[in-house]
Structure formats: C-alpha cells, structure tokens
Amino acid sequence: MKIFTIPNFITLGNLLCGCLGLISVFEGDLKKASIFIFVALLLDFADGFVARLLHSSSEIGKQLDSLADVVSFGVLPSFIVFKNLETFSENEYMKYGAFLLAMFSALRLAKFNIDTRQSDSFIGLPTPANGILIATFPFLIDNSDFWNKTLSTEWFWISYVVVFSYLLIMELPLFALKFKDYSWAKNKVKFIFLALSAGLLAFFQFAAVPFIIVLYLVFSVLLHFKVLKA
C-alpha cells in the first residue's frame, strides 16, 4: 500500500494548516487562523483533483482526508467560535459549547466515510462549508456596523453552534460540486450556483459567504423536492 503519494502529501498540508491555525488562535490572531482555513480548503480541493488526475485514489487517502478535515474544518473553527464566546459571553461556561461543532464535524466525517449514498452528493452540510463560513466572521466584524453588532453577541454564536451542529448531520441531501463531464444539460444547476456565487463574491466580497451557504442549502432543498431539475 502506497502512503507516500502526492495527493496524501497535499492532504497532510491541509492538516498542517489546521495545526498552524490553532497556534494563531492561541496567539489571539483570529484573522490569521481564518486564512489557514482558506488555504486548507484549497488543499482539500487540490488533493482530490490530483488524485483523480494521477489515478492514485486510495482508501487510505480517503481516511486521511477526513482526519485532516476534522482538524482544519472541525477543531480549528470550534476554537475560533470559542474565542468569540469567551469575549462576548457573560457565562464563563458557555464558551465550551463551541466544541459541539468539533464533535458533530467528527461524527459527520465518520458517517461520510461509511455512507455509500454520498458518492455523488452529500447527506448533511459538508464540514468545509461550515469551516469556511466561520473563517469569514473575523473579517466581517470589521466590515460593517451590522456585522459588528451581530457577531458581538453571545446569542448569535450560541444559535450558530446549535443550528450548524444539526446541519452537519441532518438527513438532507445536498448536491456536490463534482463534475463527471462539463455539459450544460447535466450540470446546469451547478453552473448557475457557481455563477451566482461568483457574482456575490465580486459584489459583497467576504460578506457574500453567508449568502452563498444559504444559496447552497436552498438549491439543495429545491433539488431534493424536485422543484429544480439537475
């Protein structure tokens, strides 16, 4: 069994980003920690792309990818939420609720690894989506008065933890941005979603990410109930 492959080294880079991001949280630099989540996301896409390109996909690569994702998109985002609750919550114990996100992320990834239904789609919110959303919050706090006020309350963070912990494991099919081919007929929903997401990013920048996550959930629900056709 080959373990020293290029895709696996890329996955280990993802894991390293998670570790370095944790150091940034301990140092009190949440923006730097968030940047490590963004880099981890790029590496998370890259390892799968390179594995398919080199025909070197393997079971150990799949397991390693999930282990790296637990750190970069589960534990690290939880610590960012922990630091915010530590700052904004008057209850000294409330901040520990942030680690529900790490726990449910681990549960979601373990479920993903053995769930045969998730080869072409997801069941529950992917951990990178949750991680990248949390990574935008330190930047949004300085973006506008609205976000500053919203993200400076303990109830926002508590509500976020509860809602997104559930979304990670809920039995809702969500479409995956995987392309077997690039024809419009078979991928029109994905192309429309990507085009709308690009437009939102160009117009709102970091503030677009929450809208994109909501758009992703809405599109998935409409597909599930056949309001939209894939």
Q: Roughly how many Å apart are the termini?
A: 38 Å
SS elements, strand count: 2
Main beta-sheet annotation: 2 strands, antiparallel
Order of helices and strands: HHHHEHHHEHH
Organism: Lacihabitans lacunae
Transmembrane segments: 6-26, 33-54, 93-110, 122-141, 156-179, 191-219
Membrane topology: Multi-pass membrane protein
Family: Belongs to the CDP-alcohol phosphatidyltransferase class-I family.
How is this structure best described in words?
The chain is mainly α and about 230 residues long. The chain has 2 domains: about 5-170, Four Helix Bundle (Hemerythrin (Met), subunit A), CATH 1.20.120.1760; about 175-230, no CATH class. The chain has helices at about 5-25, 30-55, 60-90, 100-115, 125-140, 145-150, 155-170, 185-205, 210-225, and strands at about 120-125, 175. It has a two-stranded antiparallel sheet with strand order 1-2. Helix 1 (about 5-25) packs antiparallel against helix 2 (about 30-55), helix 1 packs parallel to helix 3 (about 60-90) and helix 3 packs antiparallel against helix 4. The relative contact order is 0.10. It is a multi-pass membrane protein. Keywords: Lipid biosynthesis, Lipid metabolism, Membrane, Phospholipid biosynthesis, Phospholipid metabolism, Transferase, Transmembrane, Transmembrane helix.
